[in-house]
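subagent[fold] <- orchestrator: predict structure for attached chain, return tokens only, no commentary.
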Amino acid sequence: MHILLVCTGNTCRSPIAEALLRQKLVERGVDGVTVSSAGTGAWDGAPASEGAYLVALEHGLDLSGHRAHLLTRELATAAELVLTMAHHHRARVEQLGASGNAFLLGEYAGQSGLEAEVHDPFGGDLEGYRETWAQLDTLLEAVVVRLARERSGDRR
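subagent[fold] -> orchestrator:
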């Protein structure tokens, strides 16, 4: 299974989510899942933002090798599951032909309303990045629990 995480620039939210989801999958022993990220307005090759890089380091994850990828039809349709940070990202994924496998990350994790969208810390202070990290940590934990349950055959 391949999971694609999507935000706008692929320099803040989705790189953090990509690294964090990989870590959580390993910790839970969920095998056979690959993870990548892309942005609806990314500049190919851009590094992770400084805030994302620093907050990831605070949690023992290194984003120094991350390079942004622009979301393409090929990336969107190749993933079995596309998790987006906001509604407008999901709309773009659907425009690219991946409507059946695209979900708002928060909704996939069981949230609704405004809590289902992940706050964009870009341009803000380090505390904003920490808040985004905490939100992603909570949501991705729920995603990993759901994936582990579904992969074991329990579809509750």
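orchestrator: received. Logging for downstream: The two ends are 20 Å apart (CA to CA). The chain has six helices and four strands.
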